[in-house]
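Write out the 3D structure for:
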Amino acid sequence: MATNVFGAIEELFAGDSALAASCPGKLWTKFAPETVSQPYCVLTPERTQVEFTTGTSYREKQEYQLSVFGKDGASVYTAMRDIEKAFDWIALPLTGTDTHMASRRTNRVGPFPEEEDEHSPAWRGIIEYEVMVQRSL
């Protein structure tokens, strides 16, 4: 089990057989290498906002973006569908001082074509999640 949301998302992604099949390029944080298999996914933290504090703990809203890149719209769509099946309304396995309170998908865009160059795939899809975490100090 992970001690933070970022690690929990990575663990769940790595342990899901449907995602391994539909997203053979795996999950990357921020950037993927140019030689990665497609489709692949990039996890990016968007923002963190403290909701309230009580002196010994606080609640935090964390927003993440999962971007799927691939050579065609169909493969990107399949990977996006499998990400949603794996992550929508799940309880993230956290240990330590963080307790998962809730998570939900807040946005889904694509797949849509992108301008292709020698270093870029031609299709992209974006899924955004909001995660509420209770943190103990």
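The chain has a mean pLDDT of 87.
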